[in-house]
């Protein structure tokens, strides 16, 4: 594996999930694989779960880890070519990425969207250039439009906890006080759509009108504005807020009650409730659910390690075979 | 050992000091004990000595270490239950602590007091909830009311440098320009009081009127407002500033000279002088003393490693015996 | 080796370069040398390349690494003696350095100049006191006046890519938008001057009038204000901006074109182009050159690892022989 940026970088979902679960069963079995290899984690935006779980995964594989926390202010990267750099950008991504590629065998990168310029965000220009110029395998730690380690984690968790062959999985929009990126729901949608193609599950998305995700991610999904309809017979409900894609980054007022709670849980097939965290209690998701037996959110966060570990494992193997 | 928060978490002071000194004599003897174990250090407030010494201790034991520097602004935790999280707090401690407990085998936490709300600070609500929800052993890296790794260090240092069976130890208030927490003196007082109970030393506290510590920490200590009287025959003088407990967080004007200097040293039994650092030279403690033969401050800081290492060792042993 | 602060700390340049290149050929050959040894990296100013490459070098040698990012605001150090510390400085360098020396076997320190007070900057007071009080070997990660790891890297790179016994090396001033320190050019000049003494190369400096470096660094170099003259027959051109030493920290307007580009490259002997990075594209150095076959900038950055590794190796050896 040379890059892990979207679901397109994985050929067989069932296989990678099985591989991740086998790592989970025996976390240190491959600690020789990463010996003398260095993982560099570059955060242009803050991170808690992603940093810790990826660091842990790398250490399980015997790798060295170097973390670079560089917010965009402190380290303004130029991404355009042909520009005289006499302004505020201090380094061009061509040099920045190439140099990090010299010190690290594998790189991780996190970079959030502006939520102001749809075209720029969805072009994933920064990420693509980073991948191009660093010359080593790159794992996305969340980009402007996707969070693939989270989505792989979610599929692992669904696989672990499903009680039937083909569970019904619902992505349900929820309220929030801030305008959030579409990266997590985009990514979840593209992974679940592919899982549906592979016959692993049925996938439905429920969101208020105006909050439709970009169609490139939701191909094959059942889409509805009716939450109660969507929750019918659901085995897993993935609760998440996002801002509008259409009116890019906007937050429409929503009058109906979209918070997931015990009342709504009753409509489901005793569904397991998922969330990528951090979660706003009693705004996105009720405390009752979070503290009750249907919540998977902590187990899900815990599984971040195995998603990262299987990706790093595959990248290390591709380095060895060079 | 499941938690290390106060002196109550240690049953026998003599024993733990002896164990720490045996670690010091052979720092890497137990490097297999921590293999494949991860220590997570969570700093809600800045740290230098505590971070470095605890990290070093963990590495001596063969552990992996992950450091999380999160100031309270960047990562505002909700600690109250039953609150709709539609304000500035971004994550509830229930989830935050639980997730970190998934990635780490042992956690350290540092969190300073507000110095504005005595009841809130002294309830140690944040710490107690963190311990409760993370589900792994927790070592305090300094809380609102205590700094137990510092106090254990101090007892180790006194044990190493004492010239008689039962030395006289004095905690002496000193001037400062800022309002400082009571955590270090509280903790020192509770450890020395217990050491006095175990017949290891005699313990006296000297502070100006109005600077009395909370009685729950000073049980059994001789307490005086007369510094010269306290210094009589002292074998160790622990110099430290703190703000008022009674008028919580206030700083009263003090007219007498409370800075420890060579004149006052003459009253003592050629006492060794201690301070937890950082120290304000010629305000709390004279340069003369700091640069002279009676100062233990660097040796004391150095011993932070062995205090941390014996605590981590005991926690690792309790993990193994599970 | 007890310190690595300037070229004076190396007796034989040819030898240390050869040693560095032998480490490069076999990066992990000495991974037992640093076992149980800790490197502490103290950054009073930000760092990317220096931190990563030094960390990588230390890990190659089997060392543990602890990084301390402390900007000057957060951790205001007092360096003067005899001062009552009742102001904004929170810790004296005597204690700060001594304590770090207790936790680490080798320390690295980065501290930039103020560019406001020439005498204070060029006294290297902070660095000298840090070296004095920490009591362990210290490697400079860039000081007010020098960046020796960069200069050693540059000599390694020149040695690797030279096509004749005694290449012509030119340090060429280039434009910038900010007032930059003289540390990199000072250091490059003092290393190249010594390399010239050792008959390894010929060294020329070209800068506009008013931008002369301090003579203590340029001893033996050919110095000119005529860039084209300097570039004649050049085998290596080291492009770098710096502010005035004479009118300390000032930036004079320069009307001639001092940016290195393909036109100027034609004057040279098909010279290899170097730069310490980060580089302002099309202001200091043309994109054409940076993206073309004459640029060594990425290889040069990559070599930072081997400069750091040979220095750490020598320091570790001096620890063992104690």
From TrEMBL, chains A, B, C:
Keyword Cytoplasm carried by entry: no
Reactions performed catalytically: N(2)-succinyl-L-ornithine + carbamoyl phosphate = N(2)-succinyl-L-citrulline + phosphate + H(+)
Domain spans labelled Aspartate/ornithine carbamoyltransferase Asp/Orn-binding: 203-313
EC nos: 2.1.3.11
InterPro entries linked: ArgF'-like, Asp/Orn_carbamoyltranf_P-bd, Asp/Orn_carbamoylTrfase, Asp/Orn_carbamoylTrfase_sf, Asp_carbamoyltransf_Asp/Orn-bd
SUPFAM superfamilies given in the database record: Aspartate/ornithine carbamoyltransferase
Function: Catalyzes the transfer of the carbamoyl group from carbamoyl phosphate to the delta-amino group of N(2)-succinyl-L-ornithine to produce N(2)-succinyl-L-citrulline. Is essential for arginine biosynthesis.
Protein family per UniProt: Belongs to the aspartate/ornithine carbamoyltransferase superfamily. SOTCase family.
Official protein name in the record: N-succinylornithine carbamoyltransferase
Organism: Sphingobacterium kyonggiense
